[in-house]
């Protein structure tokens, strides 16, 4: 080999070495870029997960407050029920709604009828025509009222009417009216 050939070989080797170095550098840069991208991707995942965690914990805390509130309400209602029971209150049996015709015969018993009231008994009394006005009246009465005329009475026995408490003026008026009626009847 002459010196020219040696130089040629030397240059070729150097070019090859440079090429290898460039390739190594390129690969290194590619690797770094890949790692950087990977790190950036993981950072995005990290931040997203942190955000989700905060949000989920916030919702869970809010939901827990609601659960606590309803648990307290249930506890208070239970205390009321317990105190009523302790005080001797006995709740009525729950009303069972009939669900079918068959159960309705069993459950929906007719309300027991109230006891029938005894029929009123009327004492039949004998009536006689009033000796003054011929209106039917119980026998042996001293005076009687006249239908639809609350202030006017018919006096049969003035003395007994007075004794029974009828005002004298009322008896007097009745007797006068009766005397006029007798006169009118006689004059007809
Ligand atoms: Zn009469």
Give the SSE layout.
Layout lengths: L2 H84 L14 H7 L20 E2 L6 E2 L5 E4 L2 E7 L2 H6 L4 H20 L1
Antiparallel strand pairs: 1-2, 3-4
Explain this structure to me?
With 188 residues, the protein is mainly alpha-helical. The protein has 2 domains: 89 residues; 60 residues, no CATH class. Helix content is 62%, strand content 8%. The protein contains 4 helices and 4 strands. The strands form 2 sheets. It has a two-stranded antiparallel ribbon. Strand 3 and strand 4 form a beta hairpin. The protein is rod-shaped, with a radius of gyration of 61 Å. Zinc ion binds next to loops.
Describe the structure concisely for a colleague.
The chain is mainly alpha-helical. It is built from 4 helices and 4 strands, in the order ααββββαα. The strands form 2 sheets. It has a two-stranded antiparallel ribbon. A two-stranded antiparallel ribbon has the order 3-4.
Give descriptors for this structure.
about 190 residues; mainly alpha; 2 domains; two-stranded antiparallel sheet; two-stranded antiparallel ribbon; 4 helices; 4 strands; rod-shaped; binds zinc ion
């Amino acid at each position: 080999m002459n010196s020219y050939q040696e130089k040629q070989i030397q240059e070729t080797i150097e070019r090859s070495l440079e090429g290898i170095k460039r390739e190594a550098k390129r690969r290194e840069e590619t690797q770094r870029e890949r790692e950087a991208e990977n790190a950036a991707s993981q950072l995005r995942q990290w931040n997203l997960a942190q955000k989700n965690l905060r949000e989920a914990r916030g919702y869970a805390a809010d939901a827990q407050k609601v659960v606590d509130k309803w648990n307290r309400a249930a506890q208070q209602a239970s205390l009321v029920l317990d105190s009523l029971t302790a005080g001797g209150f006995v709740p009525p049996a729950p009303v069972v709604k009939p669900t079918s015709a068959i159960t309705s015969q069993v459950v929906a018993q007719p309300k027991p009828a109230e006891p029938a009231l005894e029929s009123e008994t009327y004492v039949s009394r004998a009536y006689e025509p009033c000796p003054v006005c011929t209106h039917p009246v119980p026998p042996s009465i001293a005076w009687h009222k006249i239908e639809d005329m609350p202030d006017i009475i018919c006096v049969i026995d003035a003395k007994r009417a007075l004794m029974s408490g009828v005002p004298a003026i009322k008896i007097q008026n009745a007797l006068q009216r009766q005397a006029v009626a007798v006169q009118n009847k006689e004059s007809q």
